[in-house]
Design a protein that fits this description.
The chain is mainly α. The protein contains 9 helices and no strands. Helices cover 56% and strands 0% of the residues. It binds fe (ii) ion (FE2).
Length: 205
């Protein structure tokens, strides 16, 4: 689970956690939906991380990065965050600044790990190099960002569903499959798709 309570004695400063908590509360106040998305993404990413046999410290950095991945949206005008209409080009550009704004926020947290910062900055990069903000390609994209982008897109598809969970799950998986090796790291997509449905069971029926 995501750990946001103050911790000591394991290399994680309580300052860092307090900072993270402050910003997460701001995000929740701004947009409950994005806040919930961040929690689910962190939960799913942790499941991926365990399958990859990450160390405890790596798991902490992965879940923390995923929990904070959209934190930059607190600095984006609120009206751009609700999806009632299509954004124009300038609005889209403003919204697309959120990974860099997020990096700015997270970098200022006391004692934050580089892997967390990278996860936030690079979670919209794409395997084919057409993502943003740096147009990184393939394994240039940090591993945790590659994980974050898969579970984030999966969660968006599941949480926006207007159909039964089982059907939505299959549709989301098939979209991931089609984007494998284009938007996403094919090996990680394959790993994600191999997780039993019960492990993805964080969505209401
Ligand atoms: Fe994002």
């Amino acid at each position: 689970m995501v750990k946001i309570t103050p911790r000591t004695g394991n290399g994680v400063s309580s300052c860092e956690e307090t900072d993270a908590l402050y910003w997460i509360k701001r995000l929740r106040a701004l947009n409950e939906e994005i806040y919930s998305h961040c929690i689910r993404v962190a939960i799913l990413a942790e499941k991926m991380g365990k399958e990859l046999n990450l160390s405890e410290e790596q798991l902490r950095n992965l879940t923390r990065g995923c929990f904070l991945h959209d934190i930059g949206k607190v600095m984006v005008p609120g009206e751009l965050l609700n999806k009632v209409r299509r954004l124009n080009e300038r609005e889209r550009e403003a919204l697309d600044l959120h990974p860099v704004l997020g990096e700015f926020i997270v970098s200022a947290m006391d004692g934050i790990n580089t892997e967390v910062i990278q996860t936030v900055r690079s979670h919209h990069e794409q395997w084919d190099g057409n993502g943003y903000p740096d147009r990184l390609e393939g394994e240039q994209i940090p591993l945790f960002s590659r994980i974050c982008s898969i579970v984030s897109v999966f969660d968006n598809m599941l949480s926006e569903r207007k159909m039964h969970k089982r059907k939505a799950m299959e549709l989301a998986k098939s979209k991931l499959r089609r984007a494998s090796g284009i938007l996403f790291d094919a090996e990680l997509v394959s790993l994600f798709l191999s997780l039993p449905d019960e492990m993805l069971d964080i969505y209401s029926p």
